[in-house]
Amino acid sequence: MRWGALALVVLLLGSLIPLSMAQDEASNTTEIQQLTLDNATREQIIAEHLINQLMKLSEFTEKRVEPIKDKLPENSTILIHYEKAEEYKEKALEEFNNGDYYNSILDALTAMHHYKIVLRELKEGKEKVEKAREWIRAEIVRTIQYFKFVEKTIHMAEKEGIDVSDLTRLYNETRQAYKVVLEDIKAKDFEKAREDLQIAKEKKAQLDEELRKVRKELAYANADKIVKEFLIRTEKGITFAERAIQEAKKRGIDTSEAEAKLEEIKAIYEQVKNLAEQEKWEDALTVIIENKPKIDAFFRSLNKIHERVVEKKIKRDVSAFLREMQDRIRKDARALQELKNRGVDTRRAEIELRTAAQELQIGLRLLKERKPALAREHFGIALRLLYNVEQFILFHS
Question: Lowest-confidence range among 26-35, 138-147, 282-291, 368-377?
């Protein structure tokens, strides 16, 4: 049993002893005594090799664990396995020094196993930290954008004479709460950061609720503008959807579900249009709000169509697709300038064109980061916006 275990150790370690050490060739002039190692010598050589490797592994691991040891919780997997590794290492060294090579081999292997777990956990921990940092960076960007949105809403509501005292108070409290979280992170006090983040989220939930109330008031104060915007956007969406359905039918694709959704949107569009013609702006806005889930689903489906178009073009030649998009943006910019010189109001189309260019850049960055699915979403949005701009140019040309 003892030598069966030792043989297994040798197999696990690979060729620890060169083949030349096992047997020498006899020369034709001088008889060379065959090298024979007794069991004790074999164990000693294997044990010595293992101890050398163990000490290197121990030193390698120590450099990575010691600087963070005090920051780890007591029940940390890293600490538990590190302590076990150190314990078995000391045991293996003592056994080796006492000539107990067999047990030294077993304990050295056990120590190496625990060191390996420590290094794996450290690697996974580093990856988690990197992901956490990315999430924090993204969260900071989202929070800044959110606060800008709240600020813009406050200014717009004030101009309309809407009471924003509660919204302003909650905005200041929430902003301060998130500032505290950032200070915790900078101080690397992540435990406190978690606690303060919970407080900040609770503040933000209150702010969200008040923001919805003010935006609803603001929406009804600008009902005519919102309704007109809806009619323009939805008319373009319906035109595009009809064309896409016809193209799909030519290819033998079942379009029954898409057609049913389109009919729903047409009915909503006509209802809003009739109320707008009677200048019943608030009633028209109520119809839009009540049907918001259907409207959002319709425009999401349009984006999906654009994404599929983008996907096909990218599969054929991504460079050609990007060149085509950039050429279209340049041509559309020139065309809009010509219309502007003729006195046409091109402000809306210019905003759409700038947004399309931004979406294209975001998509390109995501492609470089090897995130093709996310890139397609942004390319799809860029394509839809370009279509809107080009329809505007065509209409006014």
Answer: 26-35
